[in-house]
Amino acid sequence: MKYIIKRIIQLIPLLFAITFLSFAMMRLAGSDVVEQKMLNTGQVISENQLAMAKEQLGLDDPFLIQYFRWLNNLLHGDMGVSYVSGQNVFETFISKLPATLLLTFTSIILTIIISIPLGIIAAVHHNKFVDYIIRFLSFIGNSLPNFFVSLVLMYILAIKLRWLPIISKDVSAASVVMPTLTLAIAMSAKYTRQVRTTVLDELSKDYIIGAKARGVKFSVTLMGSVLRSSLVTIITLLALSIGSLLGGTAIVESIFMWDGVGKLAVDAINMRDYPMIQAYVMWMAIIYVLVNLITDISYRFLDPRIRLGEKES
Q1: What domains can you pick out in the chain, each with its CATH number?
Q2: What dihedral do alpha carbons 48, 53, 56, 59 form, nearest 10°?
Q3: How far apart are CA 15 and CA 8, in angstroms?
Q4: Whole-angstrom Cα distance, residue 153 to residue 165?
């Protein structure tokens, strides 16, 4: 418990630093929401109207005043109102979360189903035909960018075979298939190689030779010892992916018009909708902090060497 409290205290200053840096970078972007609206709509307004619009949004105040006002509101549970839609930022953001959570869950499950068995099979059949095939496929999958995979899946499954809708009309099982496949292909290709490397490293250790000499079945050693020892690496990889997926994968969501937080962030950035962008940044920061904290805690339970090292120190 002391370890968890200590880690949380260490992470609080990091969150404040992230909010300050992100707020500063947005204000240094070179334009604001009022000017962006003018460009998008083609409206021509006078300097007085421009100044009044900026004053109404509080954009004419010095940077530090804007930041501390936003931070004070945030600490009181108020993320502000969207400059573009005029809707409550928190309510808008929450309304997009179910789509992102569904896409995250399906992508991670499919990645686990594909990468862990393939990685183990490749390691067990090291430098054999099956290993070469799996490594070749993982290399191809890791080389393909998400936007290309998205377009290929869209062409085959939606246009040619007409099994799935081209774009996502709503959050449904049919609409989530292609975004899930797009994300899972790239992640599975990367994680299959990592799982293979980790399992190979464990298989080369002395306790495997000792278990074989004692007549212990290889399958028992593989599932009971090797896979358990490899879980630290696997959990680290999955934790990083969960963090990025929960933040929304902007390219994939935009291509398939998946109505999640990633697409919301892209739209907000294009319109210079500062309150919405800041809400997204806070969400990403909190997610990564929590994921890293949970990962560190899981290490202590999965790897006894970490607990022993802390006691000795």
Answers
A1: 2-75 (no CATH), 89-312 (1.10.3720.10)
A2: -100
A3: 11
A4: 11
